[in-house]
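User: I'll paste a sequence; please echo it back and then give the predicted structure.

Assistant: Echoing your sequence first, then the prediction.
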Amino acid sequence: MIEKSVLPNGLTILTESLPYLHSVSVGLFVEAGSQDENLAERGVSHFIEHMLFKGTKRHSAKEIAEIVDASGSRMNAYTSKEYTCFYVKALDEHLELSINILAEMLTESTFAKEMIDRERQVILEEIKMYQDSPEDMVHDLFAKSVLEDHPLGQSIVGLEETVAAFDQELILDYVNRMYVPNNMVFVVVGNVDHKKAKELIEKNLGGLNGSNIDKCLVKPEIKGGKLIQQKDIEQMHLVLGTDSLGRNDVRKYTLHLLDTIIGGSMSSRLFQTLREDRGLVYSTYSFHSYFDDSGLLGLYAGFSPTNLELVTDLIVKELTTIKDTVTEDELTRVKEQTKGSLVFSLESPSSRMTRLARNEIYFKTQITEDHVLEEINKITLADVKDLAAWQFSVDRPLALALMAPNNSDVDKLSALKNLNWGDLGVTN
């Protein structure tokens, strides 16, 4: 049973009672992510995620870790483009401890200057680690190619120059602006009573103050672009894609099925064509990202530089023919695959916690699994073909990102920079 309360200060509380469990998943979700940062703040949401673990007025960072470990609990956090999540998974008998420790981190973190300087070095190392992963970097390159300087196109971890410049004043200014009650969702899933959870959360956070947030987010203008970067690597890493549907579009479930057909599993077209039939790649897949009013659809492949033209041709062939060649058998298979993935995810309390929070953040209501399953079952082959024809048409902006070895053929790379859908054989 899902229950919702909103405290007088605007903090939203969601619980889902699963009495057959002996655990609780407790999550504090703050609607503050990289999309909310200005130029000087790039990476600050992620920085603050780290800092909340670095000591409070009552406990040091080590003591916080010891308290959590001593209760048999697990605590972590992550930052996305649209929100930051802090969570604890604990035995149900430690519900109060879990809420207390998250609330203490939220309201009593000291943001000591010496800890800011120390954590700055940790995050700079994290950025370097990330830069050593071309598969990760090419996705940020793709986002930048299609979103340019929009905040949604920026790296969540930030830039070395911005992270190096963060000081206590900038960090606290962002916390005071974004970490306010009506910009937060507290979620508990497991063996929990809603009334008890609400009382505990209100005891800890009911006195938290803060003004309303008017984010005034700028709608991204998704454009075509080609970005190529060379590094001392062995493989080429390619992402090819375009703009797509927003999360409020009624066709979003159709897009999910189309994405799955293209590259969402071992039976997908990309995997079968590039890896199983030709042996050209180890890793290949497709993906989609939803924003409020728009989105992205992309395809990734990592391969030997000598196979650049062949891999690109095979990918484009799949994109240009899918509107005519997708079959009823494929649709039936991906429907069952999608429904199975949804049901399996709901067997995880942590996944259910995240699902509740995301529904509240994005839609201000709960979208039930029964509704999703019903929508998936209604999708027809004609729906998929129509969306494919729209998705891969010359009207869509083409974006291409490539991480290439330093010794790559310069002429081939230059030719890629001038590609458009028409050059690739796409017609309306």
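The first helix runs from residue 44 to 51. The chain has 16 helices and eleven strands.
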